[in-house]
Write the structure tokens for this entry.
Amino acid sequence: MVVLNLQNNNFCGILPGIYMEQSRLKAIDVSYNQLKGQVPRSLSDCTMLEILLLGNNRFSDTFPSWLGKLPRLRVLSLQSNGFHGAIGKPESSLNFRKLQIIDVSFNNFTGKLPYEDFQSWTSMKVANLTFDRDNVYMVAVISTPLRYFNYFKIDVSYTLEMTNKGIKTLYEKIQDHLIAIDLSSNKFDGEISEVIGNLKGLHLLNISNNIRIGPIPSSLGNLTELESLDLSQNGLSGEILQQLLQLTFLTFFNASNNHLTGPIPQGKQFSTFENDSYLGNTGLCGVPLTKKCKISETLTQPPLNSEQGEGSNFPNKFDWVVIMMGYGSGLINEIVIGNELTRRNWSGFSRIWKKAVKVKVERGK
């Protein structure tokens, strides 16, 4: 047996802990039952396991960090249970090294976000650049011996339910490249560390409805693959940083019900987000909100363009003085002088000035 699918039944009691060494199990799905107690430690013998779905039960346990030793585990869902306590430091830097999707939402986890674990989730640090990645899915290959042929192979797709872009979504097939973290609806506290910006392959990140404080880290701008970012219902403060404009794939953004202040970033993907992305932040201003920003809030250094970059021909303070001299005399030719100076043509200054004076004298006759 390769796939054990017992989801959506009325099984109750504890999950049996009979898993032999050299188990061939690749997927276990016991979600949507009434199982309780602890996660059986014998699951650590399932070294071929890739998918473990325990969501929507009544498990009461601490975070099963010992599952990090499973060398092939890619998807772990513990959502909507009674898991509790802090997620401690990993025993090894190789813990969960193949993990792509983790969902611990709607539990009672406390303490800081597991930043030490973020460092070991190496599969989340690299974006999948495969051209046809949208057509590749996580599957279990089942080989059945036949009478006249060696083997008959069947691909069994894995399924998963998780929140995506604010909506509970059932994935009848899990895209092979999908990388997602859902830590929402727990009691995680403290600031969001810049370390989270190392997970550059992330597509979905949800840390809503916790007890987060402090600013939005600028390193979130490094998550250029991100499609959904939910920071709502925390205690975040400070501004929504301009670095988030770098998230060009972002189609869902929710920062509502925090203590954010200042102007909302304008342009790119942020021009598509509606009011509900920012509600409950009385200090925010700018489009799409009706509250306008004060001049002091919107004054920023204008970005350099191709004509204003370093080493360009754009006039400096001295150049403008020369241009104004031309206006004062009323001579068009002297404006040309000012423009010539902005091009740093210092060597031709004397010749141009004499020519201008000559023209002026001739016109005066």
Notes: The chain has five helices and 23 strands.
